[in-house]
Specification:
The protein is α/β, with parallel strands linked by helices. The protein is 40% helix and 14% strand. It has one domain (37-305): Rossmann fold (3-Layer(aba) Sandwich), CATH 3.40.50. An eight-stranded mixed sheet has the order 2-1-8-7-3-6-4-5, sandwiched between helices. The chain is globular. This is Iron-regulated protein.
């Protein structure tokens, strides 16, 4: 609760690198708190304010904002940019990885006043950090009567594809299958290499040696990415000339891979801008720009989160669990 009120208070403050600050590379100092973010044009190294970035993106069809889930700097930047873009174009749609498409009606019922927040959170199986991380952006949309798109694939379908493979989709009822993309496993070679390395380490990047279980885990990831891309396009069809702001974990978007890559395959004429987070370690004075230029069209530098694991084997096992099946699912 204290975290939520602290976040609300910070919305009214001017943060270095996030609010009205001159574009001066000399001011690129490390973030000062977990809420702080330094917005940068990676091609020039120029520091940007949120209003400056919003002005640059005012005509962009889809703005993808990658995040580190639960990082205060990511979520505060998303909320501030949502508001700034609205000033340029109030025809706006919020698209969220954090809600699954089979809960769209629940989300709509909340937005239209038929459910209370706790009822919505329970019925939509919302993420545990909703109140601290996503409440501000959903409330902004609700208060301004903006559509919110539940963009992710149904969790049980994702888990069953990870367990049984692509053939599981053939067992779905027609109405459920029709909600998913016709081509649910579009990908790019670079994304596959990145995915395998994230789970298995560099020794696992020989694609020919992938186990069937790993292949299915990757297909489950692709189902998420393709569904989010399809839902973004569906939102644009339902609301022509609206700008879509899509919030997603950075793994789904950075380097213009994942959701961004398949979105561009499906709609090559669509203009898509990607804003990606980069960690700027507390003990590093120089901005880590050179090795991160390709992560996004724009970058925002934030402090590292507390380290989850010291033991590399435990970290890898945790990553494998996240990408596979963290909860039981009835796939029969």
């Amino acid at each position: 609760m204290r975290l939520y009120f602290a976040a609300l208070a910070l919305f009214t403050l001017t943060l270095p690198g996030c609010a009205a600050m001159p574009s001066d590379t000399a001011m690129l100092t490390p973030p000062e708190s977990q809420y702080d973010a330094r917005l940068v044009d990676p091609q020039t190294g120029q520091l940007l304010s949120v209003p400056e970035l919003a002005s640059r993106l005012s005509e962009t069809d889809v703005v993808v904002i990658g995040e580190f889930h639960g990082h205060h700097g990511s979520h505060l930047l998303q909320a501030r940019l949502q508001q700034a873009l609205f000033q340029h174009n109030p025809a706006q749609i919020l698209s969220m990885e954090q809600f699954n498409l089979d809960h769209q009606q629940v989300l709509d019922d909340y937005l239209e006043g038929r459910l209370g927040e706790t009822e919505m959170l329970e019925d939509a199986q919302a993420w545990d950090n909703y109140r601290a991380s996503y409440r501000p952006v959903v409330e902004f949309a609700r208060q301004h009567h903006l559509p919110v798109m539940a963009a992710n694939a149904p969790a049980d379908v994702v888990r069953c594809v990870g367990r049984q493979g692509p053939a599981y989709l053939d067992t779905l009822a027609p109405a459920q299958r029709d909600q998913l993309p016709d081509s649910p496993f579009l990908d790019t070679p670079a994304y596959k290499e990145k995915f395998v390395e994230a789970i298995q380490g560099s020794h696992g990047t020989d694609n020919e040696s992938l186990s069937e279980r790993m292949r299915n885990t990757y297909r489950a990831q692709l189902l998420r990415d393709n569904t989010m891309a399809e839902r973004i396009l569906h939102a644009r069809e339902e609301h022509p000339n609206h700008q879509v702001i899509h919030l997603t974990g950075t793994f789904h978007s950075e380097e213009r891979l994942g959701t961004v890559a398949v979105l561009e395959k499906r709609a090559p004429k669509l203009s898509v801008a990607l804003i990606s987070p980069v960690i700027w370690a507390n003990d590093t004075e120089q901005m880590p720009l050179e090795d991160n230029r390709n992560r996004g069209d724009y970058l925002y530098f934030i402090q590292p989160l507390p380290e989850e694991y010291k033991d590399e084997d435990r970290r890898r096992k945790a990553m494998q669990a996240r990408f596979s099946r963290s909860k039981p699912a009835d796939c029969d």
